[in-house]
Amino acid sequence: MPQLLSLSRAARLADVTRGELQKRIRKERVKTFEGEIAVEDLLGLYPHINLDDDPVLERVQRIKSEARPKTHYSDGWMPDPQVLMQRLHEFQHTLVRTKSALNTSEALLEEAVSDLRNALEKPEAVLRAAIKQCIGKLDGARSRLDRASDAKARLFAKDALLKIVTASVRLQPSGHEYFIEGNDSILEAGLKAGLYLDYGCTSGNCGACKCRVVSGAVRQLRQHDYVLSAKEQAEGYILACSNTAISDLVIEASEATVSDRLPHQVIRAGVRKVERESPELAVLHVQTPRTQSLRFKAGQRVRVTSEEGVSDSLYIASCPCDGRNLLFLVFSGIGSPLEATVFQGGLAEQTLLLEGPDGDFLLHEDSRRPVLFVAKGGGLAPIKSLVEQAITIDDAEEISLILVGGNPPGSSLVRLCRSWNDALDNFQYRSTEASIPADQLAGQIIQAVEENPRTEIYLAGPDAWLNSLLRAAADQGVDPGEWSVERVGY
Questions:
Q1: pLDDT per position as a tens digit, 255-285
Q2: How far apart are the first and last CA of the chain?
């Protein structure tokens, strides 16, 4: 039976995205086994893997610091000392078992060589020749053990090292897999991986994130008020929000799918700050209480109501991986009831009422196809959330983003898009003039589909702009019926 690696872990060892690895597997027609790849096949696809240096860890850290939307609330990439020591303990057991196997093999070779040398005293010429040949092969095998140049062995060692600072979690029954880094809880890491795990308060009060550990070891990060019965504890139940992994885990946990509707929530949240990115655009930073996080899916919206009772339906412009720190984009001149309050600074330090989420402009579930996002005006908010979700999940072969009219020069949004473009090898970002003709933009989208017919298209923007763009695509002989479209109304 060949040694198998999950595609997520194999991609990290090869220092490529999971999407890039899947693209290469399809291109080279490599067989996989229930989402896993043989070590020999991985080395065949990437024969020049640099196993002496460790670019995997450097690349993960670089992407986290430069591109991922969660850097502002990360509590540090490395595990705390106690978790690290427990993972080192697990690592020590692995190395002991491996070294024991190597010692046994070496002793076996020594014994075999000795026995064969004794057999050389026998007169049979044919036997002597065969024994000499066998001894030569065994001596060669023994010398290879001393050189320790086996690529499979070094790949194993690198994988073991990666397990010290990251632990994988496989969910049942979905089969989804993700990694836990630093001091993240099982729940936090799952949300950052783009999964819709069940949860409520995220602080150990409600028990909604209760799950069962099938295999592996966990460590409690914080005390929780929710009480697990003695029977539940004996069966391996834990709270995902209050525990982290100290080894690779398999857990039973409830997840929502793309088609499932999340529960309607009503949360009072505080305005942390309002940033004026330009005379036409303001970014609203909102934070929920520690005991409540907003469960939502990328591309959805909520109703936001100010203390004066002024309300509007706003798209959430941030990743669902952080339900406490939310971003909203507010544009001037669009007729939003909240526009005047936002741009005049009246919302600063206010308490807002959030109700929702709503909306079906979502990423296709478990899709690993190339994706192209196109946004104009208010469509930037849901598209930004979808892009951050796609980057976090890291399943798509390629991610492309076209902003019609671009972002305000010098704004944080410009820097964010450029950091994605610079840090991610499967991401492309470009902007166009706001007045680009519909037929020209439609031609660019059609070209992307012609280059790869598997490409998924997501469009969001003003109603009139979308209508003209879809008509232009139809005039060029393309049926845009399978494109995902969100009409933002402005």
A1: 887 778 888 999 999 999 999 998 889 999 9
A2: 58
What's the CA gap between 233 and 207, in Å, rounded?
Answer: 13
* Structure tokens that stand for 423 in this block: 């840090």
- How many angstroms separate the Cα of 21 from the Cα of each of 5, 28, 163? 13, 11, 20
Tokens of 246: 């100290």
Amino acid 362 reads L
Cα–Cα distance measured from residue 57 to residue 280, given in angstroms and rounded to the nearest whole number: 40
Please give the Cα distance from 262 to 194 (Å, whole number): 15
If you search the block for the tokens 């499932």, which residue do you land on? 260
Give 344 or 12, the one with higher predicted confidence: 344
Considering the entire predicted model, what is its pTM?
A: 0.71
Could you identify the residue written with the tokens 């053990």?
145
Q: pLDDT (tens digit, 9 = 90+) per residue, 38-74? A: 888 888 888 776 544 444 444 444 444 444 443 343 4
Pair 341, 347: CB distance under 8 Å = yes
Residue 420 has pLDDT above 60, yes or no: yes
What is the token pair recorded at 307?
């203390």
Q: 352-363 in b/e burial notation, b at 16+ Cβ within 10 A?
A: bbbebbebebbb
d(CA 414, CA 430): 11
